[in-house]
Model the fold of this input.
Amino acid sequence: MRPVWALVKKELLYLRAYPLDLVNYAISPGLIVAPYILFAKLFGFDAELLDSVAVGLLLWYWLSTLLGGVVFGLEEEMEEGVLETLLVHPITIFHVLLAKAAAIALENLYITGIIMAWFFFFGVSLQLPWPQFLGILILSALGVAGFMLALAAVALLYKKPFELYELVQWGLGVLSGVTRPSRDLPQSLWLISRAIPLSYGIEAARAAISGQPTAGIPILLALSFLYALLGRGLLAVAERRMRATGTTGEF
Amino acid sequence: MVELRDVAKTYVVRERTGLLRPSARREIHALQGVDLRVAPGEFVGLLGPNGAGKTTLLKIVATLLLPSRGKVFVDGIDALRYPGKVRRILGVVLAGERTLYWKLTAMENLLLFARLHNIPGRKARRRATELLELVGLTEFTNVTVEKFSTGMRKRLAIARALIHEPKILILDEPTSGLDPHGVEEVWRVLLALREKGTTVLMATHNMFEAERIPTRLLIIDSGRIVADGTAAEIVAKSGAKSVALLTLDSPLPYSVGLSLRSNEDGTFLVSVPLEELPKHLSVIQSQGKKVQNVEIRESRLWEAFLRLTGRPFDDLSSPKEAEE
Done:
């Protein structure tokens, strides 16, 4: 684990060089969360519904930050030319991604604090069962890991995966029922939402705040495992193709 | 220590010929059946012009690139089957400047890469301190790499590659793009490594560097090793001699039998064997041409390359140019 922690530390040291990132992290969640909350308040939704929306937003924001941060982090390593140097050390791209995910998880702790402050500012009092919620969050993160590995593979092979990331990020948001339950979606979209681990995570979190049983967890676990396998396989293919074509130093 | 058996690498390049036309497929044979053995303690230089296959060869040994054919063993380990094991015993400095984290200090960079090799904190710090001294960067320990000159970055990259005391060091053109002072500083480090008996495989396209630094030299051209030995042995085997480069104010007639190269400033360059210089000078003067400059190239490898490959080395850097 020493190599992974060393890379995590490097990520945090880089924050020292870009202090404005921390300001951005503080402001952007508010800009993303605010419209939803304001609409909910304008239309007089009750506190339970507000909590429900807030939970969806929180999970989605966390996980899309993780997804984007890891993939763009990898792209940055490629652009700076350091990825190739990392690969002559006894680590793999998987280690690099793991370190980036861990560093972003730490950044997310900070971002969560800021989001909570924004919620407080908008008068949303979250009555979350935190231990249960954090458990669901970790499981949902595992579910997103497969997508993360697959996107990293695309970044390695085709570079610049921004458009694809946007699609995945907003697709995950809409289909997993961030602002409203996915059962309200048209049937075809609802069927797609059943293949997204985050849908089960958000449903489980909502069930947890309303004191109902969190039934979707086994499916979330099974899907997470499946996507992780698929993502790992794609990443292995990408790494091998990169070594065969000699593009480890390209971006 | 390092062994390559019949290693070949072919790149497939897709060339775009238009927006709607299908791209054309072209094969580039970067390496064509290379056999090589590097013994422990040898400092091997790989000399060749751009595109000769030097970087491809080094990247295959460094496990960054898979060959199209052949076997690679590093310290007896099959590098194609066990790249992870090979990376533990290799130190690699790739070409280019961006091989370090610029926002981190020299010490932070070294500690980071030490930890990638699982070296514990205290030992890593001690080793990093020693290496910073070796490469002459002690006073820049806590300065971020973005403030370093290109030469300082190259030296730090060498320190980075040595952090885990590798059995073999791979260097890809460690002095390319450096000013003369930077070249001297890197050479000082390379000579110290040679003295210590470090096993090194280094690519270069600098003739003077190739003559001065390695204990053994390989000349590579179009993906093939065309000569192997010490610089003196290669020159002797090829029958190459020192040359004089003459700059003329106007071209010579074909009848003189000397091939000319025109310079951008309107002058003409002609290369003649050094021992034939007086004879050629008198011929040139008899033609009424003015010799503006005479430059003696003691780096006879340039001539050896010409004799071995039948074409001139595309890098015309002379000892004088390298030192200036």
